[in-house]
Design a protein that fits this description.
Layout (H helix, E strand, L loop, with lengths): L1 E2 L1 H9 L7 E5 L3 H16 L9 E5 H6 L2 H8 L9 E7 L4 H10 L6 E6 L7 H8 L3 E5 L7 H10 L7 H13 L2 H14 L9 H7 L6 H11 L6 H10 L4 H19 L13 H31 L7 H16 L2
Parallel strand pairs: 1-6, 2-5, 2-6, 3-4, 4-5
Helix pairs in contact: 4-5, 5-6, 7-9, 11-12, 11-13, 11-15, 12-15, 13-14, 13-15, 14-15
């Protein structure tokens, strides 16, 4: 059976313990790993691995010894309870072995959980799980966590019923971070709020959200966006002495001004800006406005292309500093 995105979310939290197996596939290895971890834990419980009810099989090992999977599926465990035979990083080379094990599966056998990268609709292994009467296939795409997933992870971190404003902020943060980083942030929030009975607030989230740009680079970007042209030189000299290179500065500046542009064009009332300088950056976004920010991004893109050009011989940091001064002057117009 093929699971839609909505169906998959519910299934990972409460999988069918009588199913023959589950295939989880997608391009993002971190997302796949998180879903695999969730569904295996739901099937065998917290003590399942200690009780040897989980057998891990790498795809490379399975390719060398095809009998490993069927042996794990048919094995009788020492402890009662559901068992899982987990095949990790599978691909089409082990597809026939997985498909054969799925065909030979009988009630009472270990459930077959398979993780794989992106699989085409024509993949034989994917089709085997989709058409099997008691097996499931779920594609994981680059979508941010849903509200239900965030609430469930928050509850696991010890926070129940967060205020609506906090949920809005977390939903926005989920769109800005990689899934593993976001999961770690929720865990950090849980630790941060331990023994704190006050409702989860925006300040709590900001205090736990990861900084996206290095602090040293952040200094010069705030100066540029504030229009302080005279202060750029001394800050650039300090960064040069610390070994910061021109490409890093240019990339950081593009991220900064993209964040400002996103905030300036936001219509939801919840601009996606995070970190210790959130209030200052929101003020900068209002001051610049969308049109000037688009001009700034064009200027930075041109500078980035010059830095990467084979025919560019001017000192790279001087080129970036000149661009920063032009941007600071643009901010004052």
């Amino acid at each position: 059976m093929k699971l839609s995105s909505g169906q998959a979310t519910g299934y990972f939290a409460k999988p069918d313990t009588q199913a023959a197996g589950l295939l989880i596939y997608g391009a993002d290895a971190m997302r796949i790993a998180l879903k695999r971890q969730e569904v295996v834990a739901a099937l065998i419980g917290p003590a399942g691995e200690e009780e040897m009810r989980l057998t891990r099989i790498a795809a490379g090992d399975l390719r060398k010894e095809p009998a490993l999977l069927l042996d794990a599926v048919k094995a009788i465990g020492f402890f009662p309870g559901p068992r899982v035979a987990l095949v990790e990083d599978a691909n089409e080379t082990v597809g026939p072995t997985v498909t054969q094990a799925l065909d030979d599966w009988q009630p009472g056998d270990a459930q077959i959980i398979v993780t794989a990268g992106a699989l085409k609709p024509t993949s034989k292994m994917r089709k085997a799980f989709e058409v099997h009467p008691t097996a499931y296939a779920a594609g994981i795409y680059d979508n941010p966590p849903t509200r239900d997933e965030i609430e469930r992870d928050l509850k696991a971190a010890g926070i129940d019923q967060p205020p609506a404003e906090a949920m809005h902020l977390l939903t926005d943060l989920a769109r800005s971070l990689e899934p593993g980083d976001f999961r770690q942030t929720l865990t950090k929030i849980g630790l941060y709020k331990m023994h704190d009975t006050s409702p989860l607030s925006a300040d709590d989230i900001t205090a736990c959200a990861p900084a996206t740009i290095e602090a040293d680079v952040d200094d010069v970007l705030l100066v540029v966006a504030d229009g302080q042209a005279a202060a750029i030189g001394p800050v650039m000299q300090r960064l040069q002495a610390q070994g910061v290179n021109a490409v890093t500065l240019c990339i950081g500046a593009m991220r900064h001004f993209r964040s400002l542009h996103r905030a300036a064009t936001d219509t939801s009332g919840r601009p996606q800006i995070w970190g210790p300088h959130r209030d200052k950056m929101l003020a900068q976004a209002r001051t610049w406005g969308p049109i000037k920010l688009e001009q700034a991004l064009t200027e930075l893109t041109d500078t980035d292309l010059k830095l990467r050009s084979a025919g560019q011989h001017a000192p790279a940091l001087a080129l970036v500093e000149r661009t920063f001064i032009r941007l600071a002057m643009l901010a004052r117009r």
